[in-house]
Design brief:
This protein has about 80 residues and is α+β, with helices and mostly antiparallel strands. Helix content is about 25%, strand content about 20%. It contains two helices and two strands; from the N terminus they run E-H-H-E. The protein has a two-stranded antiparallel sheet with strand order 1-2. The radius of gyration is 20 Å and the shape is elongated. It holds the Pfam family LysM.
């Protein structure tokens, strides 16, 4: 049965996978016409906007999606880690 065991030594296997996306944050000041959808698309292109919107609402303790011009939001920004 020993022939069926495989041992992996850390550092020997090289992976061709892309590193995960790492979130950071910044502030955004809402202007007339902004929506959570448009802000999410701007700060995290390529990410699922629903997830980004949920995170924005969570970070800012928002109970509705209604935004007011001049409102300052902390938003996650996603970048590829290097």
């Amino acid at each position: 049965v020993l022939g069926a065991l495989t041992f992996l030594v850390p550092g020997e296997a090289k992976s061709a996978t892309v590193e995960p996306v790492v979130p950071v944050s910044q502030t955004v000041t809402v202007v007339h016409g902004d929506t959570l959808w448009s802000i999410a698309a701007d700060v995290a292109p390529g990410e699922d906007s629903r997830d980004v919107i949920n995170r924005i609402m969570q970070i800012n303790d928002l109970t509705s999606a209604q935004l007011v011009p001049g409102q300052v939001l902390e938003v996650p920004v996603y970048t590829q880690s290097q």
